[in-house]
Amino acid sequence: MTIFSxxxxxxxxxxxxxxxxxxxxxxxxFSSTSRMTQLLPYPAFKxxxxxxxxxxIICRSSFSTHFSQPTLQxxxxxxxxxxxxxxxxxxxRAFDTESDEKLSAKTIEGEEEIVELVDDNGSxxxxxxxxxxxxxxxxxxxxxxxxxxKLKMLVAWPWQRVKKGSVLTMNIRGEISDQLKSxxxxxxxxxxxxxxxxxxxYDPRISGIYLHIEPLNCGWGKxxxxxxxxxxxxxxxxxxxxxxxACGEKEYYIGSACEELYAxxxxxxxxxxxxxxxxxxxxxxxxxxxxxxxxxIGKYKSAGDQLTRKNISDENREMLxxxxxxxxxxxVEKIAHVKGKKKExxxxxxxxxxxxxxxxxxxxxxxxxxxxxEVISLLKERLEIPSDKKLPTVDYRKYCRVKKxxxxxxxxxxxxxxxxxxxxxxxxxxxxxxxSSGIVAEQFIEKIRTVRESKKYKAVVLRIDSPxxxxxxxxxxxxxxxxxxxxxxxxxxxxxxxxxxxxxxxMAAQTIVAENLTLTGSIGVVTGEAL
Length: 531
What we know:
Number of strands: 28
Radius of gyration: 24 Å
Distance between the termini: 7 Å
């Protein structure tokens, strides 16, 4: 007998308003930013503070056992009056759910912010500034700051040193984890990619960035965050070039943010639009004598359809269409903005099914047609390096070793704990489980309690990238997060997906932030057995 459960997340877009109606508390939902410390609320808020976001309910097929939560309902938001709170500067210390190792402290620079709140009657308690957006602001060092950075670089370890005038090279490809990676681990880490962009912006030894962008195997939430960091890096005035030998919608979404984008003559471009597919096993199971028995709550719960139906239902088609429309609309809007074109022009180009590299250059989709060695020669010329000399570069892994303190990006005694929760949820670790087996509730709860009891952690960022999992485990973690939030400010930050149990965990935080295309929420459960 097989027991299963299913969730349906939703994509978060902005800028309208949304009020999350929950059985135990009301939760604010904000656009995700790279500076979480500016969004930290004062602990023990009794009601939610509502800013701007919109929500459309769409589906993404995945199996998970979880608690049912009410559907997200878009309605006119209201705010509640609170006292003025000032948010200090914090350092951050990260905890990884894939490892019990405590990582080194990070610091987030930021000045004190003051919030204006409005009560139910519309009365304003105007302070001085609006609620911070978290927008990255590049600030150049003054003379004393530059001297301090140079001094720190002199005393850095040899493996943390970088040659002056180097170009940071990063290959963005394949699966991108939301967990921190050790120097011996394979694969890419989104936190480390993001940190490299920030360090490179302030590092006087880095002249620019050269990105190799190849087929990606990650969600749109991570793609959106990488693209935002590229735009933030450009504020430093340094160059950033992209190179795309094979390019689809995700790859081009990132590459379009670069100042220049190059491709070889034989590049594969597949900008044909988005597709989604669903498989149905009803006929197959019937032929081999298996009868699935499925019960669900809500007509949009489509997991059971895969086992019982022979074709797609109208409700499932509606959800998948909404998902594609949401992602595609965001893609067209952003590409049209960066290319200075109308949305209709972008859509017409996509509908033509253009794949000739020459046509892409003519219409301004890429800067030029060049091989990798030609782009490197171009960089040498711009940096005034002789052609017979090697271009000074530092790769992704080596630059990850460069500590932020050497660049003057740390310096506060107050610390924020970053707890990363990625993967499916289980209550205990199984005998065959590995350190990367997802979220194990007993280990996660232990870390939550450690942070709650520690006096050195002044606030917490809970980073969630999970489709859900075990119902009991999710509830136990929710309880511990709730207790933590009663004593310290807690922000839940959503990555690609925070659905079912992942969504439930976030509900215990005082504040939630998400990417434009984060899949989040849950509208019920479906259970069944195969006889």
